[in-house]
């Protein structure tokens, strides 16, 4: 099991945001080199389709289920115990390449 720490970040409005610090996990993971798409190619490829679906990138991380074998890597420590994410959290090195590949 990999255990990350909790950090508190002050937002511009003064409120506190609780975040998980995945720096050590990100340093230990190899980079997933999924190629970035060119937007014009993506738009042109949709012209013959009758049904399109869209994913909200700002909240998409909490919609993607983590593979059960990776849930232990997403563990974080609080004063109440150790918890694991079951969905993709924000802050992982390979989150953007992974969501582009969906």
UniProtKB/TrEMBL annotation:
Q: Using the record's annotation, list all stretches that form the Reverse transcriptase domain.
A: 9-94
Taxonomy, superkingdom: Eukaryota
Under the heading CDD domains, the entry gives:
RT_LTR
Biological source species: Sesamum radiatum (Black benniseed)
- What name has this protein been given in UniProt? Transposon Tf2-12 polyprotein
């Amino acid at each position: 099991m990999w255990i990350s720490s909790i950090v508190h970040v002050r937002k511009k409005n003064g409120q506190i945001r609780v975040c998980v610090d995945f720096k050590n996990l990100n340093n230990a993971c190899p980079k997933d080199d999924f190629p970035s798409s060119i937007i014009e190619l993506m738009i042109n490829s949709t012209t013959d389709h009758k049904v399109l679906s869209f994913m909200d990138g700002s909240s998409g991380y909490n919609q993607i289920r983590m593979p059960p074998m990776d849930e232990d890597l997403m563990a974080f420590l609080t004063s109440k115990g150790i918890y694991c994410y079951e969905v993709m959290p924000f802050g992982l090195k390979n989150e953007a390449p992974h969501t582009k590949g969906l």
